[in-house]
C-alpha cells in the first residue's frame, strides 16, 4: 500500500484530524477508528494512548513527523493523526502494530 497516496485520498474524501491533542480528544469521544503515529512520536504519548484507549488501533508508520506532514500535504510536522472517516481510502486496512 502506498501510504502517502492513501493519506491524501483519506484527507480529501474523508475526515482526518491532525496532532496529538485532537487525536487524544477523538479517542476520548470514541470517534477514532485508527490512529497513525510517526516513528519519532514520543513514547509517553503512545503508551498513554494505547493504555487508556485499548480499543483504538494504533499504527506506527516508518516516517518521522516531518515526512508524515509532507505525506499529508501539510506545511508542518505531524506526529499523530486520527482517522474518523477513511473516505475512499484504504487506511483502515492497516494493521495495528503497537
Characterise the protein shown here.
With 98 residues, the protein is an alpha+beta fold. It has a single domain (3-87), classed as Ribosomal protein L30/S12 (60s Ribosomal Protein L30, Chain: A, 2-Layer Sandwich). The chain contains four helices and four strands. A four-stranded mixed beta sheet has the order 1-4-2-3, sandwiched between helices. The relative contact order is 0.31. The model has no long low-confidence stretch (mean pLDDT 97).
The radius of gyration over CA amounts to 12 Å
Low confidence ranges: none
CATH architecture: 2-Layer Sandwich
Please identify the structural class as seen in this structure.
Answer: alpha+beta
- Largest beta sheet: strand ordering: 1-4-2-3
What is shown here, in short?
With 98 residues, the chain is of the alpha+beta class.
Please tag this protein with its features.
single chain, alpha+beta, 60s Ribosomal Protein L30, Chain: A, 98 residues, four-stranded mixed sheet, globular
Describe the protein's topology.
Blueprint: H1 3-13, E1 15-18, H2 20-29, E2 34-37, H3 43-52, E3 58-60, H4 65-71, E4 80-85
Parallel strand pairs: 2-3
Antiparallel strand pairs: 1-4, 2-4
Amino acid at each position: 500500500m502506498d501510504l502517502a497516496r492513501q493519506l491524501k485520498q483519506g484527507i480529501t474524501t474523508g475526515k482526518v484530524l491532525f496532532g496529538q491533542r485532537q487525536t487524544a480528544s477523538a479517542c476520548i469521544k470514541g470517534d477514532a477508528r485508527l490512529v497513525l503515529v510517526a516513528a519519532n512520536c514520543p513514547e509517553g504519548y503512545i503508551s498513554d494512548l494505547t493504555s487508556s484507549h485499548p480499543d483504538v488501533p494504533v499504527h506506527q508508520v516508518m516516517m518521522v513527523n516531518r515526512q508524515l506532514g509532507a505525506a499529508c500535504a501539510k506545511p508542518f510536522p505531524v506526529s499523530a493523526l486520527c482517522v474518523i472517516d477513511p473516505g475512499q481510502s484504504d487506511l483502515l486496512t492497516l494493521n495495528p502494530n503497537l
